[in-house]
Records
---
Amino acid sequence: MNAETASIIVARPPRLPQVSRATFVSAATASIRWGDLLGPPVLSRADCEALDELARQRSVAAGQPVFLHGEPSRTLVALLAGDVAMGLATAGGPMRTERLVHGPAWLDASSAWLDRPYVLDAVALTPAQVADLPRAPLQALLDQRPLLAQRLLVSMAGEVRRLTVHAHELMHKDAPARLATWLCERCQPGNGAPNHAIVRLAERKSDIASQLGMTPETMSRLMRTLSDQRVIEVEGYTVQVLDLQALRRLGGA
Amino acid sequence: MNAETASIIVARPPRLPQVSRATFVSAATASIRWGDLLGPPVLSRADCEALDELARQRSVAAGQPVFLHGEPSRTLVALLAGDVAMGLATAGGPMRTERLVHGPAWLDASSAWLDRPYVLDAVALTPAQVADLPRAPLQALLDQRPLLAQRLLVSMAGEVRRLTVHAHELMHKDAPARLATWLCERCQPGNGAPNHAIVRLAERKSDIASQLGMTPETMSRLMRTLSDQRVIEVEGYTVQVLDLQALRRLGGA
DNA sequence: CGACGAGTTGAATGACGTCAAACACAGTGG
DNA sequence: CCACTGTGTTTGACGTCATTCAACTCGTCG
């Protein structure tokens, strides 16, 4: 998984994950990996081809919007490759990232069904390859291919679950707990010790903070407190989790 | 709509909407109003009957759980009639209501698709009539009736949108703004004046506060501040909005 | 009448955001 | 090689908003 990631996002220098600028996405329409969007049980060749025919691909340069809040939504939007930040642009200032999407994944599979405008802005952080699926023909396709409809349903169910948990945590967990659970979720097995793990930060810390609903300053302070408590050890964009158990405890508020 | 509501929830006394206890739900399986669950364009008679055949109805007494977090989810759960609070029970204490669902509406149409346990607890506030749709046969049904799949997809899309907005507001709006937008959303045309409206509170104030992610105390204080500013006027469970424009401004933080 | 639950109000604490300064580091141009 | 700049992070001081704890009111019910 990490190897694949590296092929899409340019390897970030050990310290300083500012917007990566290299990242070559083959300019021509690449073949779309629908399986990554619609879940594990592999899709039939025919299903994929039908979707391919519907999808309109476009490239978005780094820094450019994929869509903006308020725009009417007529298509489902999938991110094939690249990174896109979703949030709401503040007057004048930069965008407050509420979520960072890493292709391949859905950017917005719901607004189009409701004939309502987008709720959030989406801007590309890296050059991005995007596929638009117009609603009407997709609907016709789903009528013929029930398996596709199932898959889409399951994808949306996952989104509902993710958002439910997220809203719950924002309501009832304080900042330390949110950070702790976030770290736990990204733990990768460390040096073999059962209570040890590693987290590599692939985004700017301020973006992570923004997604966790706190300011960069608070996040920095929380990291320091955790370090002082010998629960983690931070060096640049690598976090060594020294006491995974304690970290989980902190997250379970 | 209000007349209908009154027929389902017992008319709450003007002051004190504690858990209503009367509410007669016909004990036998009532005919299900699928249109209310799956959106406006009316369903065909055949579709409805097919769903009726699948659905397993059950009654839940007030105070009893409809489902609990952690339980494996094998069915989609719809609330046909009654009120159900969703949230997470705290150790010992009562439940922190994160959302109050008023039938007919979906309680959980997503967990079953993912074969994962429920995320939240759901307990009936009034006697409730619930329908369970087992996943496997429903899936088979959707394969035969694409229209139903579409409708379900649209319902879930609405849920995604609702949750997205909710998460956004929790992150970036402070308590006064959240209360203001909540009030705006429930405004009913008042005495004709363009800047005037009425909001009738159908739940305990502490439940409303809980759904807005604040404590009852803060909510009470915020209501008082708004009254002092002559933006609203509170009398028991009836809120007169005196300056709708100002209220909207307060909500748009 | 007394008990209870819901709501209100006040005072005190604390968590988190804001503002500002210092720091670290990469890239740039001399 | 070295200043110089720009961006991102860290740290400190400070203010504010929201929670907590507690007392008190009001209406209902036994």
---
Amino acid sequence: MQRVTIKDVARLAGVSVTTVSRALNNAPEIHGETRERVLRVCREQGYRANLLARSLSSSRSSLLGLIVPDLANPFHAALALNLELCAQAAGYQVMLCSSRPEEGQLETLFDLFFSQRADGVLLSSSGDGAYDLARRWQGDMPCVLLGACAPEDSPHRGNTVSVDNYAGGRMAAEYLHRLGHRDVAYLGLREGSATHALRYRGFLSAAGDLGMKVTAIPSPYSVSTIEGGRHLARGFLSAPFSQTAVFAVSDSVALGLIQVADELGVPVPQRLSVLGFDNIEYAALPNIRLTTLSQNTPRLAQSALRLLLELIEDGDGGGYVRRLITPSVIERATCRRLPGPANT
Amino acid sequence: MQRVTIKDVARLAGVSVTTVSRALNNAPEIHGETRERVLRVCREQGYRANLLARSLSSSRSSLLGLIVPDLANPFHAALALNLELCAQAAGYQVMLCSSRPEEGQLETLFDLFFSQRADGVLLSSSGDGAYDLARRWQGDMPCVLLGACAPEDSPHRGNTVSVDNYAGGRMAAEYLHRLGHRDVAYLGLREGSATHALRYRGFLSAAGDLGMKVTAIPSPYSVSTIEGGRHLARGFLSAPFSQTAVFAVSDSVALGLIQVADELGVPVPQRLSVLGFDNIEYAALPNIRLTTLSQNTPRLAQSALRLLLELIEDGDGGGYVRRLITPSVIERATCRRLPGPANT
DNA sequence: CGGCGGTTTGCAAACGTTACCAAAGCGGTC
DNA sequence: GACCGCTTTGGTAACGTTTGCAAACCGCCG
């Protein structure tokens, strides 16, 4: 398994290693003929540059680290895919790892990426812990947080690209109000996550403005799995309730809710309208058709990547950047217009 | 962004770089005290070894390449997750990339992994193209194919771990026969994939032995998305049909079929039993409860990883290894026992 | 005190690139 | 024919590790 190196090529082409290197990186200061000859030898010998050596020498790896909390979650899978596409287009390769629930795994991954001299790291997570981590490593590698929001009372403002959760919350309330709903529930309130806090505050604020009644239902369960949503829904639906609509913090929760509603004989949307958040692929399926707020994954990915590349190439500009992507309501079949006075 | 290197540590600890290296790789030939001192300095200075340099020098990277065709596919996502877990337990890190539909992407990824001097590559794919590729690279990096089967007429036998598709096909036929079905369809026959060919042949063989009538429905669509399954199902269900059961090549196809059946008013399983293959997470959901054959992802992952590590550590033993994992029938709600003579 | 194993250390050469700087080649001008 | 500027090439020192080999140290025996 002896591999052909740049030296072999140089010898066979009758030039110096420097010249080979130049031919490979198509530097301007090389004679056309020489380049051709060198490249031909490369092809003949099946030469592949050793990225390890290249990175070590040039101190840039063209590698980006990407950490997602859970590969099985379709929203994150879609995000990863989009990021991979954008990165590749920009000449970077993505190392994808999932942080999974294990404590300390996030730290391990940062460590790994750093040791590998990744040019930058994208961290997708909704937890606040990610924030501290990103700050700690910020000085060593450019980091962009995806989808996370700074806790408002944090002194730290990290480079962040996320959906505008506050606006999303408001939009949800406004949408339900427009359909005539006046008594609604917010399903899956989470402690310790600024992302969710913002979403909730936006919802509450708009609902208040519009004179709607809001019941918040906190979740002790995971809010990113259908199973968690089912648990939550069982609690909510098994007692009598007055609400005509539910805003769920995620599509997963919404899907769980719909399933339980189905089992308990609560017709959706006739008795209860359901509005989700994320617009995961499964939400569009013909026998689900969940009305939801779309995060617009491609835009999110593109924006995050662009920011990261700026940081890498232009250096840390000192301040921090935060980009918000406005979500949009995707109307499908799980929200119903209530009869009554015309609502614009 | 000046990083602390092994030299800095050596200087600060008053020893040579060799000694630091030994302390870090806890070599046996080092004095306990010295090691402590060195490690303390490392901690104080926040030293992180440069994996690039380490790999370059030691010519092993502890990196494994993993290629999956599609991250959005839950089966592959689950597989990736399991592999990541196993690999990490064995001290390897996984670089996950999706080959996506693009032509040439597979080649690009192999190239990338090679350039990065990955210690080995895991390739998950059901297409035959993967086979040639694995063969071409086999000499340069240990490769294990996951889930793919050699085309039977290929002279090449690559290192492979896959579900026993032939046995799976047989089990499917036997299971349906046991429930009393005698007139069945095989939905989603694929050209150019040995995996699917084997599955089909197994099904056909057992069905033949048991005297069942089989109608094969070839698929011009993708067989790994629900959407593809829907297209296929529409073709099948819109004309009158005599079959009482369908064996779908994948859960995705089965899910698509069930949806269309629902839309067209064909009750499942009363009028039509549906049997899937893969046991993806969504198949278990309470309002789906798809009866299916399980690929047993964790076993698959573990087995593949063990094989790859053997190849890496003990070298290519000359011959090729093929491991088959027997699938198992997961009984849920979409297959019905037909009334009639008792069938064992 | 010389010598002898065994443990612990250090020197220096890899590993395969890139990058800086000097030098060679080559027309053309004065 | 010396000199100049431009293009093209090569030599060599990095980059941050590991590794083989030689040297230093240490306690002990004869």
---
Amino acid sequence: MYSYMGDVNLTYDKQAISVDCVIFGFDGKSLRVLLKQRQRELPSGEVLVDSKLPGSLISDSEDLTCAAQRVVQTLIGLRNINLRQMEIFSDPQRVQGNELEWINKYYGITLSRVVTMVFFTLVKLDSKLIAYTERREADWVELNDVRHLAFDHNKILIAAIDRLITLFRQEPVAFDFLPRKFTLRHLQNLYEAVYDIAIDNRNFRKKMLSLPYIVPSGESEKEVSHKPAQYYYFDRRKYRQKNNKIFKLGFIY
Amino acid sequence: MYSYMGDVNLTYDKQAISVDCVIFGFDGKSLRVLLKQRQRELPSGEVLVDSKLPGSLISDSEDLTCAAQRVVQTLIGLRNINLRQMEIFSDPQRVQGNELEWINKYYGITLSRVVTMVFFTLVKLDSKLIAYTERREADWVELNDVRHLAFDHNKILIAAIDRLITLFRQEPVAFDFLPRKFTLRHLQNLYEAVYDIAIDNRNFRKKMLSLPYIVPSGESEKEVSHKPAQYYYFDRRKYRQKNNKIFKLGFIY
DNA sequence: ACAAAAGTGTTCCTCTTACACCCATGA
DNA sequence: TCATGGGTGTAAGAGGAACACTTTTGT
């Protein structure tokens, strides 16, 4: 038997699990995150508006991934979004005081602790999607413009950005941020936004054009007041065939 | 207000959170994982012995990380182990039937669902540590020798191995597996075990010796019946100074 | 002297970097 | 014709890959 069994204090009726979603979007120029507005009534009767990451408590019968899907779907109207798990935030004091009261009032229950699992995902922004989310009192905020968030959501967001950078170095997630057909300039803007650096465009194009899974579509931009750029697409099948699980000494740290 | 609020079914008294720990160890030759023996009495009265990943339900007041620390500390006797969060496994059906009964009997409670957060960590194996864990009915099993595990623990282990490989490409975690002073051969064996490949030893040594944070200690092996190898150590400070957050086009996928 | 593992150098080739100008389009 | 962003080539250097033999120690 486990010798530490006696230490475990079991009173599970006051603890809940929630999911929070960090939804990154890219509009061709800059990187944004989706924040939900929150109204909070102070004891004085004054109403404060601030922002939080979108999230929800989970149902008993619900997989956490389903809960996160539900949150995302409700806000941006898309099914089958590719969500990725991040950290769980489980400090017993992470939600307390006014913040805990807000949750209890909001859901009509009495909790003493909320543990939250964070998911994140990447979407392409267009004016239609932006309008859709704004009707739901959610805003796409540029990463540099994010101010104070509810709960420990600033901390969560910082962890998500870190995770995003890591992910970009492991997998071709960039294309989740872009429309199916994109220009190399959009792709470069995205890398520059994520890594926060400048990249030489000749070297960048050379690199991209050497990859067999970045394929010219034959179409070009229209009605732009400069030389129109070609559209490319990402060929997932070619990517899987070629580039899987290679080991190079260069990967050793 | 959240439009999906009505969907959430709130009965939190039958759901628990557990932690499971995937503890990888390296003995200089091969890669192992720590498994806990489990006794299970069948309705027939027969007693089955199988294996599971070490884990525990969590206390109300406990951070998940603390719970995982507790599990690890109890089994291997070391404090302040550097644990890393992995996925959460939250399928409502992941534990049911006999398996669920076993948990309820074991902890003396009545749960209908257990969600588990997985942590993993890396340790160096020596005969002292192996003896310590064996006294606690836990075994260091070679990865290739792992057979059927309790619950969904095979699935969890596979995910952990995948995570381990990814991590090796991102950070110098190798040194968490090795004693403070190690030979280049041990280091190479470790990379070969994790990636499951053969590496040319000349190229490997050249690469390692070019890294400023892999430093010869001046000492050598003793009492070996062949040419004694030099010991090296990993200089964490030098690593942090040099190698942080560089961007190269080669990282683009 | 032999077994066993440590340790060593060179060449080829690929990939990254640095760098500056012309091109196509709409206004 | 001009403003705007698209699109191009080359040379130098760094680093990875392939490859086989000598050295040191204990037995």
---
Amino acid sequence: MIIVITMPKLPFKAREKSDCLGARRSTRREAILDVLTSGPGHLSAEEIHKAALKRLPRIGIATVYRALKFLCGCGKAAEFIPADGVARYEPAGSRAHHDHLICTSCGCFIEAVDPEIERLQVRLAARHRFKPSSHKLEIYGLCSNCAGK
Amino acid sequence: MIIVITMPKLPFKAREKSDCLGARRSTRREAILDVLTSGPGHLSAEEIHKAALKRLPRIGIATVYRALKFLCGCGKAAEFIPADGVARYEPAGSRAHHDHLICTSCGCFIEAVDPEIERLQVRLAARHRFKPSSHKLEIYGLCSNCAGK
DNA sequence: GTTCTTGCAAAGGCTTTGCAGTTCT
DNA sequence: AGAACTGCAAAGCCTTTGCAAGAAC
């Protein structure tokens, strides 16, 4: 069984709070959400940890993972796992869905959307009597920079 | 940097052989390829190992991983990593590309293709001056069986 | 006999968990 | 005070690697 959207065991009170940032104010979670929204996007947990350390010198990697699970559960962040198997995180909720063009040379991520593809995916699922809840399209290849070399 | 299609270090002679099954005949690699082609598909390394053990009671998991890398390098198998982060393998080469509908309830994989989506993906990449080499579309949701419940 | 292949055990990399101490309300 | 949050270290899981023994050519 595969869980795609992991809802963390939110503390009881957190579920009642509209901002979903937790039952209590937490400097770490706020910092991590901020790293996520102000950073370049598509960061790994380790990269997020590194960025967070600049603001909170003693924050541990476990806290980062916990906060990320939490934020994903709240819909404030989204996790996705590219072909290298290392999870990346991006802010979610306020941002539109998008697919990824991933450069296999420099590792950069380009966000892209094609409404038509989105529509066709729904059709494809329907054709198989499949009820889609989320999807993920990744195109691997060379970005314009790397292809030029 | 993200390597999507990992070409294993093939032994020198293996590269010259057309069947690409290795420089030498290997019962294990043949068995694993057979598990792959005759099995239900989308098996994890562990599942493949379990199936292989029935034929070769002493085969080790390392051999399975090595063989899988090898077969992927030869184009005889394809690896893909769904949202749970655990690699799955399927026979390749003789089979057409396809996308996956993945049931988040029972974990089943449905293979599907939509030629139009394929075309639009190329267009989408081109629009970003991106040179695609492979892509992966996964739709998560409920299969008809699970949706009915 | 040389080179490839294998099993085993150990190590690696990413992620989660247990626990005791700390913080928030 | 009570529940939530945190850092640290340990454990977990999947995968790879080192090495000595075995097999193929």
